[in-house]
UniProtKB/TrEMBL annotation:
InterPro entries in the record: ABM_dom, Dimeric_a/b-barrel
Domain ABM: 3-92
Keyword Membrane: no
Protein name: Antibiotic biosynthesis monooxygenase
Pfam families linked to this entry: ABM
């Protein structure tokens, strides 16, 4: 079952760009790990010190290996030097995935492919 990680990292004002730039190699390393489908950090345009985290993993064992691995440990060390104020991350088990838009191009809130 796929796992999605969603989170926010809050940094001291002015530290966000340094955090994003310095994380580039660690993000690339995470993307190369077995089972990593998506791994992205993005700047929040409404909050100057906030970074959004989005990850998608193919399985729980893949996520467990990531959390025990060098890219994740490196990320923790990197953030500790970037004025980390706080972070909230959540994980979700995904049991069904389908497009937002149906074959006619209409956005749908319901799950229509069954």
């Amino acid at each position: 079952m796929r796992i999605v990680i969603s989170g926010e990292i809050d940094l001291e004002p002015g530290a966000r760009e340094r955090a994003l730039t310095g994380a580039r190699e660690l993000i690339q390393a995470a993307l190369a790990e077995k089972g990593c489908v998506h791994y992205a950090w993005t700047a929040d345009i409404n909050r100057p010190g906030r970074v959004h985290v989005f990850e998608e993993w193919e399985s729980e064992p893949d996520l467990a290996a990531h959390l025990a691995g060098k890219p994740y440990q490196g990320m923790l060390a990197h953030l500790s030097g970037c004025g980390l104020i706080g972070a909230v991350t959540r994980k979700y088990r995904v049991d069904h995935v389908e497009p937002v838009y149906d074959p006619e191009g209409r956005p749908r809130a319901d799950f229509f492919t069954g």
